[in-house]
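Anyone up for a design puzzle?
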């Protein structure tokens, strides 16, 4: 059995992290993921957005992960691989360094126990932090693009050519049906399965979402998540929400181990037709307030499931919300601006050096 390891920060776990782990799992039979602690991240990269405990929980929630190593060393060593019976280490095809400029994977590379997967271009923690700090809406899908999904196949997720930096610039993620298929379980509910339906924005997928989906899944056998379009979310959230566009949110939710299926661009009101079509046995909502005047409709969006006595409100037990997460960023704005600027400059220089090297070959 091939056991592989992946180790990194996993701050604000998003579909880019999940895509790397999906690729890593495909290289072996069992995936062990090392997650650095807060002290190591602050020393080498700057302050993390999520606490180490939140990051450990988020990584465990990704469906391709078999085991998590808490407080993994920032520089991956052979001793770490051997301790957890890992044959090799996997990381994206970007360069990561310590605060002193040392390649964090130089030891395992020299030993021939290192493999690479394609980094997910067009999204990064730095990019998402930038969207929050700039309060932009350019990433949202509106008008003719509200439900749009590119139909072409792709080997890697792409970004718009107008993005400032290949890795950290505020970018436009271009989804494909192939990528959604790769993230999806592709399993239909079995006869007799209890089908649970939840809906929302699930923006900046975080531990509050994870805790809620875990409890919702425990109420049945098959969990369907309806995701509202960007204009609908903006209508009930306001400001520049959602921070992540519809298809970025689709992939983030599909990567969760508790989710069976996703409805892309679900209507705000849960209708009779929707419940009948998906054979929904129970509709669940969290403890957050429900808007009653969204998408051109007035009234309770859960009127139909309540009429059928198939509605339940559950408390995730988590205090984390997307708004609280954004507030963390805003309240520590100067620290994150400095972190982003340093990483932007470093990765721009690395990109320039790599491009020059390719041209000289």
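Challenge accepted. My sequence:
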């Amino acid at each position: 059995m091939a056991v592989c390891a992946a180790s990194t920060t996993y701050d604000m776990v998003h579909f880019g992290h999940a895509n790397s782990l999906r690729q890593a799992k495909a290289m072996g039979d069992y995936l062990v993921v090392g997650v650095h602690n807060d002290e190591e991240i602050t020393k080498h990269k700057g302050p993390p957005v999520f606490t180490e405990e939140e990051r450990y929980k988020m990584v465990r929630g990704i469906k391709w992960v078999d085991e998590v190593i808490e407080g993994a060393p920032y520089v991956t060593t052979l001793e770490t691989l051997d301790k957890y019976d890992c044959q090799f280490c996997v990381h994206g095809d970007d360069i990561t360094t310590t605060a002193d400029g040392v390649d964090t994977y130089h030891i395992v590379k020299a030993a021939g126990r290192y493999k690479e997967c394609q980094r997910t271009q067009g999204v990064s923690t730095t990019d998402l932090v930038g969207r929050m700090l700039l309060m932009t809406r350019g990433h949202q899908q509106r008008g003719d693009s509200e439900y749009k999904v590119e139909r072409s196949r792709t080997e890697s997720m792409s970004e718009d050519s107008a993005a400032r930096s290949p890795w950290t610039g505020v970018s436009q993620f271009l989804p494909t049906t192939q990528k959604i298929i790769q993230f999806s379980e592709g399993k239909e509910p079995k006869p007799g399965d209890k089908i649970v339906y939840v809906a929302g924005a699930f923006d900046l997928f975080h531990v509050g979402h994870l805790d809620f989906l875990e409890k919702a899944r425990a109420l049945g056998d098959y969990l369907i998540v309806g995701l509202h379009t960007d204009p609908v979310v903006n209508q009930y959230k306001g400001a520049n929400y959602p921070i992540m566009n519809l298809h970025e949110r689709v992939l983030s939710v599909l990567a969760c181990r508790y989710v069976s299926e996703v409805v892309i661009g679900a209507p705000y009101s849960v209708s009779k037709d929707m419940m009948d079509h998906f054979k929904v046995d129970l509709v669940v909502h969290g403890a957050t307030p429900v808007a009653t005047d969204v998408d051109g409709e007035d009234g309770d969006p859960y009127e139909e499931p309540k009429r059928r006595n198939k509605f339940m409100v559950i408390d995730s037990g988590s205090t984390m919300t997307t708004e609280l997460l954004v507030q963390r960023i805003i309240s520590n704005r100067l620290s994150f601006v400095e972190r982003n600027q340093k990483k932007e400059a470093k990765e721009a220089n690395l990109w320039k050096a790599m491009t020059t090297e390719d041209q000289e070959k």
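A detail worth pointing out: Residues 149-174 have pLDDT under 50 and may be disordered.
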